[in-house]
Structure formats: structure tokens, C-alpha cells
Amino acid sequence: MYRRARILAGGLGVLMALTAALSPAAGFRSGPGPQSEAGPPPPPDQDQAVADFERRLDKINDEIRDLRSRIEAEARRETTVLSTLKRINLTKSLVRKELAAQNVQLERARGALASTQADIRTLRAGLDREREAIERTLLALYKFGRLDFFRFLLKAPDIETYSSENKRLTLLVRYQEDIVAGYQRSLAELRSAQAELESRERDLAEMIRAANLKQRELEAEGRKNAALVNDIQRNRKTYERTIVELKESADLLQAMMDRIVNEEWVLPFAFVPLYESKGRLPWPVDGRVITRFGFERHPNFRTVVENKGIEIAPREPGTEVRTVHAGKVVYADYFQGYGNLLIVDHGMTYYSLYGHCSEFRAAVGDMVEGGQAVALSGDTGSLKGECLYFEMRFKTRPLDPLQWLKRR
């Protein structure tokens, strides 16, 4: 009797020790996938993030298709100095958009890479806990020695004890099977995640290489633009031909302004008339005036041209272009001779024009406030490098902008 009690006591001790070693509190998990000690963080809204990337890519791809179509249309027209300049500028815009699309894909790839790296860290932490649980099990078995459970059950004093200890043994066997299977699952998940990480790293490296190539393509188009502008400035015949074309573009702009003036609309909010701010308007960009309003003589060819606006060289490339007064955007597109041109109607037939922009931050129909960023400075259509072409008009009559902007 005493011997049977000792066997039972020893068996119970082993079972309790092994059960404790394999319990969830000791780090055992019965379900698939690792768990952190503080519990898994709430998952991010992956569907929303993917939808956001897709919307951005769709918008850029639409712009890419439009630019390609316009470049093809320009290629079918008669080649002139300004049309060549336009094709180069449209190509630069196209490459910028393609680069922007690649950057969106890079952003998405980097996010996926970071997510995979986080998964791997979580899997490794889970494996460490499972390894510790297995080590505790082995330690308990070593400590208590090998137990003849069959002989122990045969000597159970009654059916209740037999049933109870049988359940404990069954549970122990299940725990042993689960912890080994869970560890194997975690190892498989880790191997899969590491393979996915390596694949994502290769994809990311390829995207970076493609983006660098696209950047070099953009720089090559920039050199083409600079070479053509340099030829215009140095070659008298090319320059005179360009001046004729610029006069034709100015006439086309005048005709367009006639149409815009005839399109009446009313601002949907109370506003201060622009004429009341004469001499106090904010500058559209911070920079140096390199072309003034009125007549200008070429320093070498002695030819005279009439400037209906001013050109401002910004202090920094890609500077934000800001509206000088509240109004409505009535035009935002490439206009030959002016590059990317944006026109704001300020009401009561006052207008401001912003040319040579690299890209727009506002679209036709947008209501804008004074000082709002509507574009970025650039060199599209410019014969003087990066600068902002700025005009002010009352009806279709050009005004000297320096008489309307704040004194500096």
C-alpha cells in the first residue's frame, strides 16, 4: 500500500511538473502563429492602404497616357523651334510622371518589406518561447527520471484515480504533440517569410535601379532643353525665328483671354476686389526679377521685344508658386511659348497668369485663396532657365506687375 502511494505521488509530481512546463503561462501556444507577450498589436488597415496606392497610381497612369498622346500629336505637326521645345518639355513631364509612378511603387514595396521584417521578428520571438518550453519539458523529464506509466496505471487504487490520471496522461501526450507540431509550423513560417523577404529585397533593388535610370533619362531631357535654349540665345537666325513664333503665341494667348473674359461667373464668397490691393499684393515666388515689363532689347542682336509680364528667378529650384489674390483657376495646361501656364480669375475681369511651371498644384475650376500654392516653379517653355513668368491683366490689357506687388 505504501509503495503504491509512493508511485502515485511520484507520477502526480511528474505530471504536474510537465503540465506546468507545457502550460500557456510558460510560453506554450496551442494555435498556429507566434504571439507576443503583450498580445499582438491591432493590424493596420491593409485594404485601405492598398486602395490608396492604387488610386494614386491610377491618377498618375492617366496623366502618363495623356502626355504620351500629346507627344505623339506634336510629333505629327510641323517642326518649329517652339514645337521642339514643347516636345522636350512634354517628354520631361512624362518622365517625371513615370518617375512619380515608380516612387509610389517603391513606397508600397518598402512598406511591404517592413511588414515582412516585422513578421520575421515576431516569428523568431515565438520560436524562442517555444524552444524554451521544449527545454523545460526535457528538463522536467530528466529531473524526475523515466516513469513507467503503464505500471503506474495498473496499480491505481480505484477507477476514479485511473480515469483522472488517464486524462492527465492523454493531455500530456497531446501537449507534447502540439508543442512539437507548433514549433515545426513556426519554423516553416519563418522559412517562408525569409524567402519572401529575399524576394521583396530583390524587387526593391530592381525598382531602385529602374528609378535611377529614369532619373538619368530626365537629366538627359534637361540637357536637350538647355542645349536648344543655348542655341536660341547664341544663333541669331534661330533667335529671330523664335521671336516670330513667340509673337504668334502671344496673339493666341490674347485670343484665349478674350474668350475667358466673356465667360462671366460670380465668386461664391465675399472678397476684397483686387484693385483695392494695388501695390500690396504678395509676390508669387521669392526671387530676383530677370525680365521686366515693357520693351526689352537683346544684348547681342539688338532686336527689341515687348514683354507683357515679368520673369522671376526663384531662390530655390522647385519653389512653390502662390496666388497673389483669391479667385478661380480658369486655365491650367501647357501653352506654347509659356510652358505650363495657370490663369486665375480674380473677379471683375482681373486676372493673374503664372507660366514656366514644372507642375500644377491646382486644377481648372478650383477656388483658391490669396497666398495658396497652385504650382511649382520650373523651366517649361523658358528661354532663361528656371523662372516664373508672371502677368497681370485687366480684361485683356496687360498691367505692369511691379506696380501691383509689394515693394521690396
Would you give an account of this structure?
There is one protein chain. With 408 residues, the chain is an alpha+beta fold. It has 6 helices and 12 strands. The longest helix is centred in the middle third of the chain and has 76 residues, at 159-234. Strands 1, 4, 5, 6, 7, 8, 9, 10, 11 and 12 form a 10-stranded antiparallel sheet that branches. It has a two-stranded antiparallel ribbon with strand order 2-3. 24% of the residues are buried. It has 2 domains: 2-35 and 45-232; 274-403, Glucose Permease (Domain IIA), CATH 2.70.70.10. Strand 7 and strand 8 (350-360) form a beta hairpin.
Characteristics:
408 residues, alpha+beta, 2 domains, ten-stranded antiparallel sheet, two-stranded antiparallel sheet, 12 strands, 54% helix
Question: What sort of overall outline do the alpha carbons produce when their principal axes are compared?
Answer: elongated
Query: How many domain modules?
Result: 2
Helix content: 40-55%
- Percent strand: 15-25%
What order do the helices and strands follow? HHHHHHEEEEEEEEEEEE
| Mean pLDDT figure | 80
Rg of Cα set: 37 Å
The span between the termini is: 109 Å
Total of DSSP H or I helical runs spanning 4+ residues: 6
* Biggest pleated-sheet summary: 10 strands, antiparallel
Poorly predicted residue ranges: 1-19, 21-40
| Secondary-structure content class | alpha+beta
Say how many strands there are: 12
